[in-house]
Specification:
CATH class of the largest domain: Mainly Beta
CATH architecture of the largest domain: 7 Propeller
Radius of gyration: 30 Å
Largest sheet: 11 strands, parallel
Number of helices: 3
Length: 877
């Protein structure tokens, strides 16, 4: 099976109501691990304990839904499960392709060639050695079983050491630039998942921090031996930063901040106590670097990684704070004792001899504009380049652009390095007001993709480094991003320029005062958009925020369900329906037993209802509107449910898997539900698989064993993503096969008596008739006359213009009337198709009448514009 293609399967399963009730009664706490990190690793399971609140009512497997639960209106019945065609999954290719350099360093080969070493995140991650002067790749290799890079170090002999991970845990690698041998030295180093902030010690060993046990570990490249200095604190999971300062190992933790100085010989340590002006709104120490007699300590979340300064001779902390240094370390010193770093998106220098910040002139070059739409530059160095007098500042950006700035002359260069793009991990998925689907990426270099609703063509776009939720609010596309719970809004019909269109509207921020980090739930509530958030690292208590995207004004409500995150939202009639996760920010410990469904009154600003629907749900997500106006959602312990918003109780449910098979950690962002009235089924992504659930029987099929998210675009197409690829999911089954195709200009009547005739992009100058046993697929065409089909097998009229009446009678297999302009009446009668006839998104200049069809026609949520009366089975379409 080709990489990226989801495993598909057809397992028809069903539980009787009694069996489901019995299964829910046998509640036992599964064995679950603590949540792993999102930026720093990947979502994993989280602790959850069962509560005692059962489903309000369980109905599945036997078709025993109560009155009012009939999925088809006007006397029609849903097709039996056996009659519903098998969905077809079509691979559209990698969802997001990008170069994503988050880890780099610079060195020199034995012949004096300056090189950059880079790990580009992707699936898989890649390691590349690049000639700084030309951008040529001198070596490149995929790093198997990894998607994320970490620190990179070069020793005095030119040997390279680095870390990479996920799904591999805490991988440690070496690279010999002379032999070009890349070696995986060890995995799960010291029993940990992630290695942070590698630094050379005074004894020639590499020291680094770890997650999840906040260790300090030393590795001796000469012997291959490890020394574990143990867990540094019990109240923080990360030693995120580590640096060597005057021969001591300094280690910084998070999300509870401690700064330790450790004797590498004895392991003895002391804790430093930075002053209040340094610690204000600081939860993490994320970088520690000594430059001359100054220690530069990077802080988070304050600003955008501010840097504090400590005079190592006097022990005094400077009142000066270098603001917003992004994520890059200060460079090595130049000949004048200056180190270079970004501050508020501009390269500046810090003079270690005077303690002053000194402008560089970098802002007056072409580089700021060239780098403006990139995530940033994580690594820079001061080098003496061959053929160039004096020193040059060199950087490698997240997009893989090598740039240089000569410190004396101010001359610049900008070169695209030969770093191969790789599939990024698909993350956010949603539909904009233009009807196109949009895909975000996980910890990318600022990449998104548009999926055209007509052609299904994938177009790369600039975006945030991690788009969490994508939704429509009026005529605006909403994109939320991590970190800091950020909202952008824009008009997708206009030129796309990230930061301008879509524009920045809101950042709730990590840390004070809101402590929010991720926006997973988004729904338009009319004049405002509602946002559901996950809190900052180490925090419990998400929030519900109501935002006016025009003014930026917002209404903030934290802990609407105490100690739970708000992860999924739906809206109707002044009420917001929300699903929660018991899990808070990473490195927090849940206090709740089970996720809840809540109802928020927008006008009264209060919770009207909040209950757990199952006993073992780590999260309740995927809220949408399903059959008969019911709210539908799914829980991490395997239950798909319908909730009656009037009675406020569960009226129908199906168990898809046992509670101990679910992943209860994280925030359920990939759980999505879609009701398809043509087939009478729900599509749901849960626990990494795509299910099709037959509402009348409770039976279900596993459509794809690996499918993370789904959405329905404006053309009614189901778009899905797995880890790296995008898919079209044709719930109607295989496409119709054409026996004959007509294009161009056809003069005179068109009479079809046998086989299936496809009319594609044509003009038919005359009437069209389809006789018994024949079929018509009319697409992007114009008919200057009436269209009539009697007893046809198939009638598809799509995105076309018909200048005359349309009459379809007695069709046996399938009827699709979608996206057309009809200059005359439309009549649909006595069809007996397996799936409900689709009559949607048409402009009818005349009456629309339907009768005697079994099942009854549907519009799949896309209403028709009818200038005359709509009657019979089409009265509400």
């Amino acid at each position: 099976m080709k990489p990226g293609m989801p495993r598909t399967g057809r397992r028809r399963l069903g539980l009787t109501a009694a069996a489901l009730t019995a299964a829910l009664a046998l509640l036992a706490a599964p064995s679950q691990a603590a949540p792993s990190e999102a930026e720093i690793a990947q979502e994993g399971p989280a602790d959850a304990q069962p509560s005692q609140t059962p489903l309000a009512q369980d109905v599945s497997g036997s078709g025993s839904a109560e009155a009012g639960d009939d999925p088809a209106a006007d006397g029609a019945t849903a097709p039996p499960a056996s009659a519903v065609p098998e969905p077809v999954v079509q691979d559209l290719g990698p969802a997001v392709m990008s170069v994503n350099v988050r880890s780099a360093t610079f060195g020199e080969l034995a012949d004096g060639t300056p090189v950059a070493y880079a790990v580009s995140n992707g699936n898989p991650a890649t390691f590349t050695m690049v000639d700084v002067a030309t951008g040529e790749a001198l070596f490149s290799s995929e790093i198997e079983n990894t998607t994320l890079g970490g620190w990179i170090l070069v020793d005095e002999d030119g040997m390279v050491y680095f870390t990479a991970r996920h799904p591999m845990s805490a991988g440690l690698f070496s690279f010999d630039p002379e032999t070009q041998e890349l070696t995986n030295l060890e995995e799960r180093v010291a029993g940990e998942l992630v290695l942070y902030s590698g630094s050379w010690g005074p004894d020639g060993r590499i020291y680094f921090g770890t997650y999840p046990n906040a260790k300090v570990v030393a590795f001796d490249p000469a012997t291959g031996e490890l020394q574990d200095y143990g867990t540094q604190t019990e109240d923080a999971a990360y030693v995120f930063s580590l640096g060597v300062v005057n021969g001591e190992i300094w280690a910084g933790t998070g999300p509870v901040p401690h700064l330790y100085a450790i004797d590498p010989a004895t392991g003895e340590r002391r804790e430093l106590q930075p002053p209040e002006h340094v610690m204000a709104n600081t939860q993490w120490f994320i970088g520690i670097d000594q430059r001359a007699d100054t220690a530069l300590i990077r802080l988070s979340p304050r600003g955008n990684y501010d840097t504090a300064l400590l005079d190592l001779e006097t022990g005094e902390w400077s009142e000066q704070i270098i603001p917003s240094v992004f994520g890059s370390s200060p460079t090595n010193l130049d000949a004048d004792g200056r180190t270079y770093l970004f501050s508020e998106d501009v390269v500046t220098s810090y003079d270690t001899t005077t303690g002053e910040l000194v402008p560089t002139g970098w802002a007056e070059t072409d580089l700021p504009e060239l780098l403006a739409d990139q995530v940033g530059t994580y690594d820079m160095a001061v080098l003496e380049l061959p053929g160039t007098e004096g020193e040059t500042l060199v950087g490698l950006s997240t997009d893989g652009d090598l740039w240089t700035y000569h410190l004396s002359s101010g001359e610049t260069t900008f070169t695209r390095a030969e770093i191969e793009p790789a599939p990024a991990e698909a993350h956010g998925l949603g539909v904009g007001p233009d009807g196109n689907a949009y895909i975000g990426a996980y910890l990318s270099s600022g990449s998104m993709t548009r999926v055209d609703s007509q052609s299904l063509e994938l177009t790369p776009l600039r975006g945030p480094k991690q788009a969490d939720a994508i939704a429509t609010h009026g005529e605006e596309l909403i994109v939320t991003s991590y970190p800091g719970a950020v909202v952008h809004a824009g008009d997708p019909e206009q030129d796309w320029e990230w930061g301008t269109n879509p524009r920045h509207v809101l950042t709730l921020e990590r840390g004070e005062p809101h402590f929010q980090d991720r926006i997973n739930g988004v729904v338009s509530i009319g004049d405002r958009v509602a946002l559901g958030t996950v809190p900052d690292y180490g925090e419990l208590g998400g929030a519900l925020t109501l935002l006016d995207t025009e003014t930026g004004d917002f209404e903030f409500h934290r802990n609407v369900v105490p100690d739970q995150s708000v992860i999924s939202l739906a809206y109707a009639d002044g009420l917001i329906y929300g699903g929660t996760s018991i899990n808070g920010g990473l490195s927090s410990d849940p206090t709740a037993d089970s996720a809840e469904l809540f109802i928020w009154d927008v006008a009264a600003q209060e919770v009207l209802y909040s209950e757990a629907l199952t006993d073992q749900a780590g999260y309740l997500a995927g809220l949408s509107w399903g059959a008969d106006g019911q709210l539908v959602g799914a829980t991490s312990d395997g239950v798909l449910f319908e909730f009656d918003p009037q009675e406020r109780e569960v009226t129908w449910s199906v168990r898809l898997f046992e509670p101990d098979q679910g992943s209860h950690g994280g925030w359920g962002y990939s759980t999505k539900t879609i009701w398809d009235e043509r087939t009478g089924t729900y599509l749901v992504t849960l626990n990494g698989s795509l299910y099709q659930v037959h509402r009348d029987s409770g039976e279900f099929d596993v459509v794809a064993e690996e499918m993370d998210q789904i959405t329905r675009d404006g053309a009614g197409t189901i778009i899905g993503v797995d880890l790296t690829h995008a898919y079209r999911i044709d719930i109607d089954g295989e496409d119709v096969t054409c026996d004959e195709t007509i294009t161009g200009d056809h003069r005179g009547p068109l009479r079809l008596t046998e086989g299936v005739t496809c009319v594609d992009g044509a003009t038919v100058r005359g009437p069209v008739t389809v006789s018994s046993g024949a079929g018509l697929v009319l697409t992007d065409s114009e008919v200057t006359g009436p269209l009539r089909a009697e007893g046809a097998d198939v009638v598809h009229v799509l995105d076309s213009v018909v200048s005359g009446p349309v009459r379809v009678e007695g069709t046996r297999e399938e009827v699709l009337l979608r996206g057309n302009t009809v200059r005359g009446p439309v009549q649909l009668t006595n069809s007996t198709t397996a799936l409900a006839p689709l009559v949607s998104d048409n402009q009818v200049n005349g009456p629309l009448s339907c009768s005697g069809n079994d099942p009854a026609p549907v519009n799949a949520g896309l209403a028709n514009e009818v200038s005359g009366p709509s009657t019979g089975q089409c009265a509400d379409l």
